[in-house]
Every structure is written in structure tokens, then in C-alpha cells.
Amino acid sequence: MQANTPPSNSGPIFIVGYIHTGTSLLKSMLRRSSTLFVAAGETHFYQDLNRNRRRFADLDDPQIFRDFVYHITALAYLGTKRANERADAYSLATFNLTEEQFEQLLANVGQVAATVPIAERHISLFALVMDELTRLNGRERWLEKSPEHVYFLQDILRVNPEARVIELVRDPRAALSSRKHRRTDEWLDAKEVQEQLTPDRSTNYDTIIDSYMWKESIDSARDARQKYPGRVLTVRYEDMVSDPQTTIPHICRFLGLPFQPEFLQVGWINATSKTAGNANEGISRAAVDRWKESLTPEEIYVCQIVLRRELKEFGYSFEPTGLAAKAKAPVVLGHSAAHLLARLGKRRPAGIDQRRTDTVQRVYRRVARTLGVQK
Predict the structure, then answer these.
(1) Which residues is 15 bridged to in the sheet?
(2) Which of 116, 201, 265, 307 has the greatest CB tally within 10 Å of its CB?
């Protein structure tokens, strides 16, 4: 864990990290704070920004501006999936807002947005709307959790100068194990839906591609920490679940958020576990080493070869795999080659978020070099 400068005690909080790293668990703890307004679902606002710039292009048009503010409000209360399913399926009453409150919110946001350069207006509106929703809910600060925002941290920190970020890092072998058994509804699946492609769930898990996506998340957060020192705190998932009594207060000190003992009294959510007799047994480390049983030795071997430096950097021990795993590694490489060709063969429509495209293309190039397809 690391931090360099005193935190703000009033700015927004972002929780990010590679998928299945405990972001939902941390959010479930911090949302117990009476001072925080917490976005109900994952908004994916920054990763979907270019799409929304096209959808709500002319913010000088009062109706388009209103629609965009309403959309951001829906993201905050419903998350990106429900907010984008059917706009006619919900109303202001869904958000416990009156017409009068929304009109005042719209006026307040519009007044500030008018002072923002037009090129920055779309990206700035999220924080302006969240500030107003925080005020309307009688809270002091807001929190948003979208794991994939880790790839957009520099944009987030640039436009939110008071923001603080918690980056959760989990053993990449555990992340691979989780993806292996939950192949749907995550990075590649959601990405392909947004790009109007039929999700190819057979390739939603791949040992090498997913290892490099994990590495991309680490690299992105590292770049953000270097450019904006003291505003990103990196926490290992394993430390959070093994020693929450130390780790969670440390996170709270970084955020300038008063620690509450009830933060640790979470029930079952993703990486936590519960027994039949105690739904609020607290935080469990039961999932920490589960990857040793669910990944094959050759998958472990390949992951450890690809991420040798990062495993050492974060203090993750290498698992002995034996000669048989090394001998079977070419089979894993062959599967990755097939998956890579399948994905490269798909046509992507123009206008997809450039940063996301760049990230995926870097992963593809790294995989291609690993497979010997290109130098």
C-alpha cells in the first residue's frame, strides 16, 4: 500500500481494479458510511464517454443537455446495464426525485457547466451531477465503483482534482480462476455488446490474453500514480481480506473518511463467504488460494511466465508446477493463438472509444509476440 500526500476529505472516491479483485466487497463496506452518496451500480461513465458524446452531441441544445443529465442520474441510481436497457422503464420517482428537485439540479449543473470549455463539458458533467445528487441526499461526498475505470484513471484524476482512488490488486492467478468460471458479462463480453457484436463467450477466458489485460490494469494505475502522486492508493485484495482490521482503517485514513467498525460487518458478497448460521460473519479469505485447485498446472505455469516481474513486485509467491506443466504449455499457447485470431478477425465499427481500443490492441500485440506471431 502506498500514498504520498495528505488526502482530501471532501473529494469524490473511485474504486477501481482488474475484474474480480474485491471492488464490490470494498464498496459494500464503505457504503455503510452515513457521509457518502454511493452510486448504486457500475456507471462505466468514463469508458463509455465517446459513445455518449455521440449520443448527446450538442449540449447547447436544452433538450439534449437535459437528456444527458437525466442519463447520468440514471447511471448513478441504476448502473449502466439497467440505465441503458429501456429509458421508458423508469422515471424520476425511481430515483426518489421530484420534478422540482430535478429542475433545480438541472439549473445548478447547467450554471456550472456553462463555465466549462465545450471540449471538456461532457466529461465534466458526471461529477457535477454526482455533486448535486450528493447534496440532495444529504451526504457530504460521493463514491463510484467501476473496475474498468482503472484504464481511464488519468482522465478521471485530471477532471476531478480532489478525487482519491483506491486501486485493488489481486493475485492474477486468482483473477484468472474467477474469469475461467465466470466467462460472461465482463470486459470482453460487455465490450462486444457495446460494439454491436455477438458476444463470443468461448473466448471470454484465455490464460495469456487475460494475463496481459491484468498487466494493462496494473500499468495504467502505475502511470496514474506517477503523474498524480498521492491520489491513488494501491491495496492488495489478500491484505484486505486477511487483515481487514488494519487495511480498512488505512484506506479510510487515505480517503479522509472516518472509520466505522460496522465497515467490517459485511455479509456475503462476491469474494466473502457466509455460513448458514451467520449471514454477517464478516470478511473471509476463503477465496484467496482457490485458484490452486481451479487452474491447471499449465495455466499457472504460463501465467507465471508472462507476469513474472509483476508477481514479484506485489509479493505473490511462485507456485511449483513441475515438468509436466511446462510440457503442456504449448497447448495453452495454441488455444491463445486460436482465440487471438478469432478476435482479430472481428470487424469493429468506427468510433469505438480510442483508449479502450488502444488497450486491447496493446494486449493483442503482446500476445502475438508471446506466441511468436510477430516480433
Answers:
(1) 145, 166
(2) 307
pLDDT tens for the chain, 375 residues long, are 544 444 456 899 999 999 889 999 999 999 999 999 999 999 999 999 999 999 999 999 999 999 999 999 999 999 998 898 777 788 999 999 999 999 999 999 999 999 999 999 999 999 999 999 999 999 999 999 999 999 999 999 999 999 999 999 999 999 999 888 775 444 444 444 444 434 444 446 888 888 988 999 999 999 999 999 999 999 999 999 999 999 999 999 999 999 999 999 876 444 434 443 444 445 666 677 889 988 999 999 999 999 999 999 999 999 999 999 889 888 887 877 777 777 666 555 444 455 555 666 666 666 665 555 444
Q: pTM for the full model?
A: 0.84
Integer angstrom CA distances of residue 262 from 30, 142, 189: 9, 19, 35
CB 41 within 8 A of CB 79: yes
- Cell 491484468, located at residue: 214
* Amino acid in position 172: P
